[in-house]
Design goal:
183 residues, Immunoglobulin-like, 2 domains, elongated
Amino acid sequence: MTDIDATDAYQASALLPADEIKQATATPRRRRPDRGLLIASFVIAGGLALIIWGFFTAITGDEGIERPLAIESVSPVENAVQVLQQERIAVDLEFGYEAVLILDGTELETTNIGRLEAQPGEQLVLPPTAIFDPGNAVISFVPNENAAITELTQGLHTARVEYWRLDEGRANAKSYNWTFVVV
């Protein structure tokens, strides 16, 4: 130690207590991280990672339903649990298909609206049957008092659509079943 350093240390020791001299002359220590803050940060980061993972792996809408390519949609949807008694039952097919509906084992009479004749300006009166619209390739049925099924009773119902390509005929029909619950 030089004379100046010794004098400075002596003067400092006269003015400050010993532990403060050690702190003043020692190299500064790194502060230890707060354990609670670290744990909270890891929990938040883990939560965000789970949310992001959930967005990328979630199956929603029609993604979880495996139906034939010829069937674009059904109503009520597969496994619906709160269907009303007067709900419309419908199947939207790809263009070029024809179909019939079978509800709880009863095949519904089908009317093809493309074959109904009406005078110009006359309103078309639809019979109380399943209606097939060939322009949109949609078959639908609404229970009513004059139809084979007047209402959907409470409980589980099974619907089936038998569909076929127009150029192949009903002899080559395929079918698709789904269920729904009426409240």
